[in-house]
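Re: the request from the purification team.
They wanted to know what the chain is likely to look like in 3D before they choose a buffer screen. I agreed to run a prediction and write the result into the notebook, where they can find it.
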Amino acid sequence: MRCKCLLPLLALLAACGAKGEAARPLAPEEDSSGFAVLTDAVPDAILEIRYHSTYNFVGARVDGYEEPTALLTREAADSLRAASDDAKAHGWRLKIYDAYRPQRAVDHFVRWAAAVDDTATKAYFYPDLDKSLLFPRGYIAAKSGHSRGSTVDLTLFDMRTGKELDMGGTFDWFGEESHPSFCGNPETLEYTCGYNGNAPAEGRKINSVQFYNRMALRALMLRHGFKPLDEEWWHFTLKDEPHPDTYFAFPVKRPAR
């Protein structure tokens, strides 16, 4: 009889415990409250989220990309909206390959790089490099600025032609051909490879149109508070990023309503 009397009390205690657990504050790296869904903030952006697909250097959907969407800190999203409006005035739209990247995705990259016998995507992304060199040379790292939430990988889409601007190279190509300084000087805007106009370039060099398309993207992003990366023409980080020391871990998906 006494056991039956205790049942309501035990149920009440269990309910209180559940409520207390639900109210427990999130760890900083799990808190997505300061993030925006990129296409809500920048409705003209085009998404091609490569890590939600198999068309990437891993050759599989990457851990943590639960939906084909993109997230950014609100500060970065606001600046990207300004860049998008500027791009539209030139007849372009922003095409997004990646934005916030959870730490579990970076961990997936590290595991992939350690599996040196898995070279299924070598011909498409790193034909000139031995896979064992990707980590030592910094192409893959244990931490990524993307995980801080204010970095975006993107290109320009020409609304007149209905195609991406020709940048002379693919997103996530591992090699010097992806450097903004390849075939030119980003500071002086001097093109140096000798293939003027749309003349076909030999080997993997780029022509002057391709170089200046890269510079147009760079100038656009710099005008709106982003800084470039020396190794990737597509990669930009908000200069005044709000979380310079936090590497977030929540998955890429729209937040629950």
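For the purification team: Confidence is low (pLDDT under 50) at residues 16-21.
Please add any questions underneath this entry.
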